[in-house]
Here is the input.
Amino acid sequence: MNQLPEIKSEEDYDKVYKSSALRLEIAHAMLKDTGIQHSQCEVLKGGSNLIYKINHDRILKLYPPIYQDDAAIERDILKALQHEELGAPAPRLYTHGTWRGWFYMVMSYEVGLNIIQRPEYTWPAGVTSKDRHYIISQLADWMQASYESNAVQSVTLPEKWESWPDTALKLRENLLKKHSKFNAEQAWIDQIEPFFEDFDLDACMKLPTYNVHADIHGLNVLISDKSGRWEISCVLDFADTLKAPIIYDLIDPVLFIAQGDPALCKILYDTLLGTNHGLNAKTMMQWALLHRFCNLGFFTSMYTHTKGKFTTIEELGHMLTGLN
Here is the structure.
């Protein structure tokens, strides 16, 4: 490939991402130029980056120039995790570098099932209630260990993600725009501002912060039953790590993994915020709507557990958060 596609915007990148042939052509050119040894090159679906299986035990991840900050974050967090024992493994980082302005990483291919299966957004068949409780406890412990890890917390993030007050203000200012962008119906958009009338942004900005994963949803946690019971086999994708309070990091695992189950949500809340956390469904739902990747359009039109079942954000919040 003599000329790489020009990617100056998310729209440009989306055209590349949707073309398996183009994605494969880019990877073949990169592998040829860098001399990285490989026995295959297979496009892997899922995620937001260009990911390929290049050996039976390795994957290649490519980031275009517009996502260099994300690449640097994932590289540095993975480096920090290589010798950390947090209770669940992360991919092993073999090599990384730049190629024609693109960033690349070669890491271990981790075996396991996504903890939540599309398109129904359900747990894999055979994962019992007892196993779910164990997995959620494992996940909560892993998250807590990451906040206590000197290696993880010492990673310097790009300037745009280092200041939680700046991030929180930006998220609040772009709240309506974000949910509109993700195709929420106007009837739901109209409820957002009244729902946020009592949200204390100043208090939100002053909460203690950590380097948090910020995207622990069902596709970024793998599970396996090799040990005789279902357990976490790997935590993936650290490119969205940012400085934020713990409650922000709880949004994805509560909504998409625990899926509002009160008992599973309680494990997450109690482990990470303490048994006297004082949260209620409205506060947690406000944080959910604020979250960078959570949107009403998904909850009301695509998410199996809530699609067509509610008419108000308050009702939706009770189901999604597992709180009263």
In short: The beta strands are 42-44, 50-55, 58-63, 93-99, 102-108, 113-114, 210-212, 221-224, 231-235, 242-244. The radius of gyration is 20 Å. The mean pLDDT is 95. Residues 199 and 286 are 7 Å apart (CA to CA).
